[in-house]
Amino acid sequence: MRVRDSRGQESGAGGQGTEARFARVAFSKNDAREARHLAPAPGPRLPAPFFSPLLRISAMIIFGLAALLAQPGQPAPAQPSYSLQDGNLKTALSGALQGVGIDQKLNEQVPLDLTFRDEAGRDVPLSAFFHPQKPVILALVYYRCPMLCTQILNGVESSLKAVSLNPGRDFEVLSVSFDPKDTPELAASKKQMYLRRYGRPNTANGWHFLTADEPNSKALADAVGFHYKYDPKTDQYAHASGIMILTPDGHVSKYFYGVEYAARDLRLGLVEASQDKIGSPVDQILLFCYHYDPATGKYGAMTINILRAAAAGFTLLCGAFLLIAIRRDVRRSRSSRAALDHLR
Prior knowledge:
The chain is of the alpha+beta class and 344 residues long. The chain folds into 2 domains: 51-80 and 294-339; 90-277, 3-Layer(aba) Sandwich (Glutaredoxin). It has helices at residues 13-38, 53-70, 148-161, 184-198, 214-223, 263-273, 281-289, 303-343; strands spanning 3-4, 10-11, 101-102, 115-117, 123-125, 136-141, 172-177, 207-210, 226-231, 236-239, 242-246, 252-257, 290-293, 298-301.
């Protein structure tokens, strides 16, 4: 084939070379356009094979806190018995107060076969006031007492008002007179007065005012380490002030001293004595953070347990943050792969 150039001159074999060059140029341009069409659009870069440094640091913190929480605590030492009778003070006490006080007898079994009289004058065994899952508050007093016993019972009533647990339903209250001269009629009068002050309905069957002859009341007082002394000149008793909490099967669990009892301590003592059969999950958390101190008769904060609880909460927060970050990275990775697959 012959081709006329721009100057009007024909060319022969040279025209074939020109056609070849035009074909190669056209093919190269078509390849370039094809390549540009097939090239993937710039998109998100694939994530690193592992997580970001921030995630790695968060994971290290969580593992460290988990190791702290997993550290076994030191076993609690056996609780010794304490006494309100300081040996250094005994020489300074008058003869009327010698031997008066409270000796702790933690975990001591109370004799449940003792016999007492209820407010109606009926003979009732002590075991009748102990029921499964119900701890017992024991207040040793005498109803003719001119001052201290009244303050003890006032303290019990005031603390019970601040506790949502109810006598009769969750626990029992025993006010036991160690004075053989106290009568069921006097006990009934005391009960009516304190039930009116307490003012919570349907609790009369849970707060009992008992009397007894001297052998039975003395045996109960000795079992819990409560020591008193009679003064014939004044016809009164010298005694210490405090209450005890007994387990449902009659073992001594806690002592609270004085005439005022913190509602928190009383509630925790009842929950612990019931072996967690009463109370709420909040009580379990408080018992984890607070520990009964026999020396003071109060609950105090356990620093190590509070730190562990705080570490557990921080670990949960960090774990939630780490989980959210991991899920976000996984979603980004899947989106990037899906975009590449679509472009191909």
